[in-house]
Each structure stands twice: as C-alpha cells, then as structure tokens.
Amino acid sequence: MDSLTPAEQRELNSRMERKQMKEFMTMYSKLVQRCFDHCVNDFTTKSLISREESCVMRCVDKYMRSNERVGERFQEQNAAMMQAGSMAGR
Amino acid sequence: MSFLFGQRPQPSSAEKIAAAEAEIEMVSNMFNQLVDTCTKKCIPPQYREADLNKGESVCLDRCVAKFFEVNVKVSEKMQGEAAQKGGAGGAGGGMFGQ
Q1: Longest dimension (CA), chain A
Q2: How far off is chain A from B76, nearest CA to CA, in Å?
Q3: b/e map of A69-78 (b: 16 or more CB within 10 Å)?
Q4: Closest-CA residue to B79 (of B71, B62, B50, A79)
C-alpha cells in the first residue's frame, strides 16, 4: 500500500471517525435488541419489573465485557497472522 | 501526471484513500462477524451475573482462535482450487502457503 500524504491521512481519519460513529450506533441497537429479546418476556405489566430491569443491566455489562475480550483476542490473532504472513512472503 | 515514460502511473489521492478504506472495512467487517458469532455461541441468554464467568471467557478466547483458523483454511482451500482451475503451478499460494 502506498503511503498517504498528511492531507490524505486526515481525510481517511475523518472517514474512519464517521464509520466508528455508525458502528457504535449499530452496536447500540443490536444490544438493545439482544437484551430485550433475552430479558423481557412478561407483558402483564406496562413497565419493567425489577427482575427484567436487573437482567437488562447485567446483559449490557456482559455484552460490553465480551465485546472487549473478543477485541483483545482479535488484535492478538490479527497481529500473529500479519507476522506469519510477512515471514511466509519471503 | 507523470511524463517519465516507463514509470507506473501513480494512483490518485482518491484511489489511495479508497484502497486504505477498503482494507480497514474488510478487517472491521470480520471483527463484527466475529463478535456476533462468538457472543451467540458463548454467552447464554440467562444473564445471572454481570461479569463473564470463567467458562464464557475461555469459550470466547477459543472461539476467536478457531474463527481465525477457519478463515485461513477456507482461504487456502479456495486459493488451491483457483490455482488448480487456472492450470498454473499454484505459485506460492499467497500468504498462507505451507
């Protein structure tokens, strides 16, 4: 890959920022969907019962932590793969 | 515009940015796929506690490792089949050739 000039890098960075915003919104709506599906099944009341509410809180926590962990492992694997690739290419 | 004959034309700014963006997009898509599939496989929908327990943590670690391995194997196999069809000696087989 040719290296980018500072101006090109700035453009790439601003696109990446927009993309990250979009990804965050996607993750957020996926999370709401997931926690609602798994935690809220009682429609005898109009507002969340305490069981549902604490389930949702735990669901969000758990999801964020697993996201983090997968991210860490992903970076490790990706780095290892890059290294293997650059060695095999010789 | 290069006036020196015999030189490869320089990619334009837009092309370079697009190429970088496409590469990042590819990695990012893979990550999202990975997160989706591993949380589905490893995190049961009960949410008894907020922290990941040991089983879930180990499951996630292994899931990521296996996902990458599958990625590599599929890539190798497809490169192998393409080389076969192309009739060429399958030179190198790319990044993951043995």
Answers
A1: 66
A2: 13
A3: bbeebbeebe
A4: B71
Cα–Cα dist A80/A59, whole Å:
31
Q: Which of B16, B40, B54 to mutate to probe the A interface, most A CBs <10 Å?
A: B16
The tens digit of pLDDT for each residue in A24-71 reads 999 999 999 999 999 999 899 999 999 999 999 999 999 999 999 999
What are the φ and ψ backbone dihedral angles of B4, each rounded to 5 degrees? Answer: -90, 115
What torsion, rounded to 10 degrees, do the Cα atoms B46, A38, B34, B63 define?
A: 20
**Structure tokens, B23:** 């590469």
How many whole angstroms separate alpha carbon A41 and alpha carbon A56? 12
Cβ atoms within 10 A of the Cβ of B98, count?
5
| Shortest Cα distance, chain A CAs vs residue B81, angstroms | 20
pTM as predicted: 0.77
In terms of Cα–Cα distance, which of A81, A4, A2 is closest to B70? A81
Task: Count chain A–chain B contacts defined by CB atoms under 8 A.
Answer: 99
A71 interaction partners in chain B (CB closer than 8 Å): 31, 35
